[in-house]
Design a protein that fits this description.
alpha/beta; FAD/NAD(P)-binding domain; six-stranded mixed β-sheet; 18 strands; binds flavin-adenine dinucleotide
């Protein structure tokens, strides 16, 4: 089965690796001329780490990043709303969250995939036609043909627009700045991932390498001035000035050109992710707001389950149906809860509801919820 993957991000490259493990080949077509992901970090939770382990790259990823022992939601002075036992941040096999620079993760994936398959850079998908003997794909530069096409071209997916022109991206009305700071956290904080909540603003951070801290700052769009200064760092320092002094230090140690802005949003639920022999995966299929830190983890789960479905079923159409049926419940749960959580984080009432829930929910229930989130099983 000649398979083309459109997009060489986390979903595309992990799927290529997972297909290879199942003895299935593919070619990855990536729009960017070189893999040079913007400077941000990502937290890979145990469900993703378990799959990276099964694909034989956990040690490589772990070496490039930082294993976290604790994840906390805190007040603006970094005091956790609730102390949670260690086990909640690891799965039954002891996989913990790995915090890593995105470019390092992508490099590990790219190098592993390139050992077995071709990754063609500078190939931006533009259109496709279904023909009698397969699918013809047109790129900005050249053409290719395939029997099966997997669309891993992210939240703004061109392929999705061709398949499902009515698909819509919903804005959450929140702006997120992400940065990489030249900071070493105090020893007791080195293995902690935090999201600190202030007056309808939040700031998250963790160490991602020996000398770098990844951080994100989220502010409601409607509370921003009509025009922002060209240098965002002083503005963020001022907005977060009543936070713990560590937050100010992290921002101030970040070069201005290491700060990137994103408008947060997700993809309105698609009724189906596939059409004929074409299937969407990762953000192209089910982009979520980042509030549960699960977007990339779900892209990695897609890779795992889709490769199993394609290896098991001769008909791609059937494989895609099995994949869709199996994945929907978890993906819907994450997209919907992440959306709600993000809304609550930026409202006074919502914040107090979350605080009360976190304080009152029995630890056993929290553990069950995390176990369900981290569960990865055979298809
Ligand atoms: C602020 C923020 C913080 C986040 N934090 C986390 C986190 O901590 N943990 C987590 O799990 N998730 C997180 N996410 C979500 C995560 O970033 C995404 O879910 C993940 O990157 C999706 O991977 P993907 O491969 O589907 O898409 P992408 O990462 O967007 O990759 C798509 C790839 O396709 C390529 N491409 C685009 N168009 C074309 C085309 N026409 N032709 C060919 N190639 C194309 C792009 O260049 C890119 O390489 C966060 C997201 C945001 C916005």
């Amino acid at each position: 089965m000649k398979t083309a993957i459109i997009g060489g991000g986390i979903a595309g490259l992990t799927t290529a690796l997972a297909l290879h493990q199942k003895g299935l080949g593919c070619t990855v077509y990536e729009k960017a001329g070189e893999l040079n992901e913007i400077g941000a970090g990502v937290w890979l939770q145990p469900n993703a780490v378990k799959i990276l382990d099964a694909l034989g790259i956990k040690a490589l990823v772990s070496k490039e990043g930082m294993e976290l022992d604790r994840m906390e939601i805190t007040n603006n002075q970094l005091r956790p709303f609730r102390e949670i036992k260690d086990q909640v941040v690891q799965d039954d096999s002891g996989n913990k969250t790995i915090a890593i620079h995105r470019s390092k993760l992508q490099k590990v994936l790219y190098q592993e995939v390139s050992k077995h398959m071709e990754v063609k850079l500078g190939m931006g998908y533009e259109a496709h036609e279904t023909e009698d003997n397969g699918i013809r794909i047109r790129f900005g530069e050249g053409e290719a043909s395939a029997e099966v096409v997997l669309g891993a071209d992210g939240i703004q997916s061109h392929l999705r627009q061709s398949l499902f022109p009515d698909s819509l991206i919903r804005s959450a009305g929140q702006i997120c700045w992400r940065g990489i700071s030249n900071t070493v956290l105090p020893a007791e904080d080195l293995k902690v991932g935090r999201e600190a909540w202030g007056k309808q603003i939040r700031f998250g951070f963790s160490q991602i390498s020996a000398s770098e801290v990844y951080w994100f700052a989220v502010i409601r769009e409607s509370s921003l001035p009509s025009s922002l200064p060209p240098e965002i760092r002083p503005y963020l320092q001022e907005r977060f000035s009543d936070f713990h002094p560590l937050v100010g230090q992290i921002i101030s140690n970040t070069p201005e050109d290491h700060i990137h802005r994103a408008l947060l949003g997700d993809l309105k639920r698609l009724d189906q992710w596939h059409s004929g022999n074409i299937c969407l995966i990762g953000d192209a299929a089910h982009a979520t707001t980042p509030n549960m830190g699960q977007g990339a983890c779900q892209a990695i789960e897609d890779a795992w389950y889709l490769s199993q479905a394609l290896a098991t079923h001769k008909s791609p159409d059937l494989a895609f149906k099995v994949f869709d049926t199996f994945r929907r419940k978890k993906v819907d749960y994450i997209v919907n809860n992440s959306w709600r959580f993000g809304k609550m984080a930026h409202s006074r009432l919502g914040q107090s509801v979350v605080r009360s829930m976190m304080k009152l929910t029995p630890e056993k229930v929290l553990m069950q919820q995390m176990k369900a989130l981290y569960k990865v099983q055979p298809l």
